Amino acid sequence: MTTARPLAVYTDVEDTDPASGIALLEAHGFEVRVLGTRDPELIIEGARDAVALLPGYAAVTREMIEQLPNLEIIALMSMGFDDVDVDAATEHGVWVTNVPGAATEEVATHALAIMLHSLRQLRFYLAGANPVDWNERAPQAPPRLSEQTLGIIGLGRIGRELARQAGPLFGRVLGYDPLMPDTPEVRADLERLGVQRTGLIETRDGSDVLSLHLPLTAETEHMVDEEFLAGMPQGSLLVNVSRGALIDDEALAASLDAGHLGGAALDVLAAEPPQTGHPLLGRDDVVLTPHIAYFSERTEIEYVRIQAQNAVTLRETGRPESPVNRPAS
What we know:
The protein is of the alpha/beta class. It contains twelve helices and twelve strands.
């Protein structure tokens, strides 16, 4: 008698090669199906018998979870999990997992890179590297970094790695994290990194460069709004490599238009890809990259492996390796 193998279903894989993940799953007894879609109806139809769902960028809603009765795990290929209804998954006994730490170095390095690109006004000077414009100077000279204060909102893995990389370049580093405990070990680690821990407003008000490293939650969505931006120092730079919806894009564009903020360096937007006419596209005062801060030769391998390994480990041990929830039994 042949026993049916557990089914693992990839939703969308448009910019990822899942071959190594498929091989890992199949080697551990899974049947694997690749749907190649973000469409909720097609995902429900193609994954109705699945025990493991492996999304790329596809959202997973309560309605989808309720129509996948055999589902045991939603294994994400990202650090963020705001595209999944985690509460619904928890209620229905479904694990949700992410890939913590897989791209810590890359994301912090990218934050530093776009930050320096903006501060050193490279857009202007790259365009001016020609015989006609060679001696042209931007209206304002770039600042000396050792005279600038870097503020980091969110002192998790990536925020602390940014402090390690960027701290030696700046005169001072301020940091805020509402969830980090105040213990001797934490204080020692922040001291080693050269981070002065302060409150949210103190970090915002005291930073020439402010870098966001927070998850997207109900509390953090659009936390950087008109009021928040108005409190940032005149001419300061806002950096975001975490979640686009932390920022109210219209408010940011208005602050830049008014000349209050000096610039923004972003790898993420609230809606991706942006629509034509988005207020932050094509601006000289915005450095924008297309959500690639995580990307490297190493992460191409690790994101796929960790995503699949979570499904394998759950089947073998009853608990995945990097859960973000504790589902109802």
